[in-house]
Amino acid sequence: MKWVTLICLLLCTIVTESRHLKKRDADHHSRHIGGLYLAVGESNLKHLLLVMLSQNFQKCTLEEHEQELAVLTTFAQHCADHEDEEDCKKPVITIFHNKVCNIKNLEERYPWAKECCPKEEPDREKCFHEHRDIKVEPFQNPDVEAACKEHKENPEHAFDHYIDNIAKRHSSLYPPAVLALAAQYNTIITECCAEEEKAKCFGAKLIEMQKVTAYIEFKQKHVCHILSTFPERVYQAIKIAKFSQKHPAANFDVVQKLALESVHLSKDCCKGNVVECMIERMEYTQHVCDNQEKLSPNLKACCEKPLLERTPCIIALPKDAVPEDLPKELIEFVEDEHVCQHFADMKDIYLAKFLYEFARRHPELSIQTILRVAKGYEGLLTKCCATEHPVECYKAAPQLFEAGIKEVHDLAKQNCKAYETLGPFAYNVILLSRYTPKMPQVSDQTLLEITGKMTKYGGKCCALPENQIVPCAEEKMDLLFGDMCERQSHTFINEQVRHCCVDSYSDRRPCFTKLGVDQSYKPPHLDESFFQVDAHLCEGSEEERKNKRLTLLIHIMKIKPDISNEKLKEIIEEFTKVREKCCAALDHLVCFDIEKPAFYLHVKTELEH
Question: What is the pLDDT of residue 309?
Fold first, then answer.
């Protein structure tokens, strides 16, 4: 089952009808628990509440959660028949917090509850959300026979175990995605328990599921990172550009409306309001189908499918073809004499229309490139509209657009050529030589992780058709830099990295590309212990041996960040000779003891001159 199906599975199954859901007013987005109980049914509501309990209280056992589930479910059932009672009118998240804050001895196991429980919503919701992330032991493959036995004899309780395990280990993952992953795990159990080689089946399928889980969580955190780091209009621009690329025949008003709705639900999801998140996502999908005639004829087949299949079908749809009658030139934005008047009277709407028109004409560009072009256009109008002859000035806009597109295409060609010529390992070396001097304060492991991912992205994106390379590379780098910048917000790296992280979303990748050596960095003194040139270089897996060699390279650049490529190449060649000679020797240890002093002297000479 593809990951898009996993994400959407619960969104499609959790609600069989929405007529019982209380519509939100403009200020308070509350959903009543009785209406929710009637809409989703007791079983689905219990699963949703179990995710909330497991994500907030990771030290508790499933059996302890089941006790609280009984209390919450009973109350929901009562409110389904007594919706007018005052307590039943409270938002679901308020009821949830009120109930769990009354758990006996809660503060002994969760001291933070003493701080959170007295607060009022939404501060209490935020407090709970901030205290979720605790270390839980990594997931272990189950005892296959025991798992199959429980799955067969008590499937409902087994499913609750899946939910509990996934929710505890992924405390920030949207509950709909948790339940969808639990459903996928249930499918894996069903399939593998029918196989002769059960353990082998589990091993292969669970590895793939863990990758899917990590990717979903990574993407979700990235959205929240963007919303918390940049003005809301940035994420609005991202959504407008994505909609316009996917449905280029859609009119601007519909695109803008759905983009704003998507931003709103993402904000609620990032706040941790799981009930609001779930229901708004369901409503959003419905609104897409309500507007299908204005968006794309290709939506019709998806919107006619059963509820279970509708959302994954929509997400999996490829980009529509650009309408043949859509002019290539943006005449109204580069030649119209009223451009400055429109820009002055309704700047945000005017720029959003430009973004829409440009994106729908360029399905081959990344969202980040499109946003940079739009930012450049805004800067050009700001300058031109202050001159005596603005029309002549902003006629240069097409050249500006072309330059922005050419820059990113040239960079992609350059990097792909390097990857194809050098191969993965040497390309990784190049990346380390670029990024270590920019952020030498970062740990060896993090530098290996960042450049290792960049190398993998190079292998994947450069193998795609030419018109897909830039979107692939830029969007993957966007995720990577977003993750690094989120870490930077908690653990300061250096001032130039901070500027790249917070100054501009669209310019983040170019900012990192252009960074030079960090001038604030004070290198450590050269010490022989910094170079672990010994028998351990010959041990471990190929991946481990590769990382040991790369770590030595990192250490060299941390001692001399401004080392020239020529000197670095000489050191690498000398190191390679020593490593290959000693790893081929009968006694690795003796060989390295003999060769290491001369190698260290060579490195010292290169680094000190």
Answer: 61
> What is the rounded distance in angstroms from the CA atom of residue 13 to the CA atom of residue 118?
35
**Structure token digits, residue 50:** 């179990």
Complete DSSP assignment for 92-109 = HHHHHHHHHTTSTTHHHH
Exposure pattern of 225-261 as b/e (b: 16+ CB <10 Å)? bbbebbeeebbbbbbbbbbbbbbbbbebebbbebbeb
What span, in angstroms and rounded, lies between the C-alpha atoms of 123 and 271?
10
Environment class of 401 (CB within 10 Å of its CB; exposed 0-12, middle 13-18, buried 19+): buried
Cα gap 176→277, rounded to integer Å: 9
Report, as an integer, the average pLDDT of 38-59.
Answer: 88
Q: Is 32 helix (H, G, I), strand (E, B) or coil?
A: strand
DSSP β-bridge partners for residue 91 = 32
CATH of domain 410-514: 1.10.246.10
Contact 548, 536 (CB under 8 A): yes
Q: Is the pLDDT of residue 251 over 60?
A: yes
Asked if the model's pLDDT at residue 439 lies above 70, the reply is yes
520, HSE (Cβ side, Cα atoms, 13 Å):
8
Please check whether residue 263 is in contact with residue 232, taking contact to mean a CB–CB distance below 8 angstroms.
yes
Find the range with the poorest average confidence among 111-120, 136-145, 252-261, 331-340.
136-145
**14, pLDDT greater than 60:** no
Least confident segment among 112-121, 267-276, 332-341, 365-374: 267-276
Q: Where in the chain is the domain with CATH 1.10.246.10?
A: 3-226, 230-318, 410-514, 528-608
Show Cβ contacts of residue 409 under 8 Å, excluding neighbours closer than 6 positions: 470
Kind and range of the H or E run holding 127? helix 123-130
Q: Which fold has domain 230-318?
A: Serum Albumin; Chain A, Domain 1 (1.10.246)
Question: How many CB atoms lie under 10 A from the CB of residue 538?
Answer: 18
pLDDT at 6: 41
More confident residue, 23 or 277: 277
Helices 307-316 and 3-13: crossing angle in degrees, nearest 10, is 140
Separation CA 12–CA 52 (nearest Å): 19
Tell me how far apart the alpha carbons of residues 57 and 43 are, in angstroms, rounded to a whole number. 21
The one-letter code for the residue type at 19 is R
* DSSP state letters, 174-220: -HHHHHHHHHHHHHHHHHHTTSSSHHHHHHHHHHHHHHHHHHHHHHH
Fold of 528-608: Serum Albumin; Chain A, Domain 1 (1.10.246)
pTM: 0.84
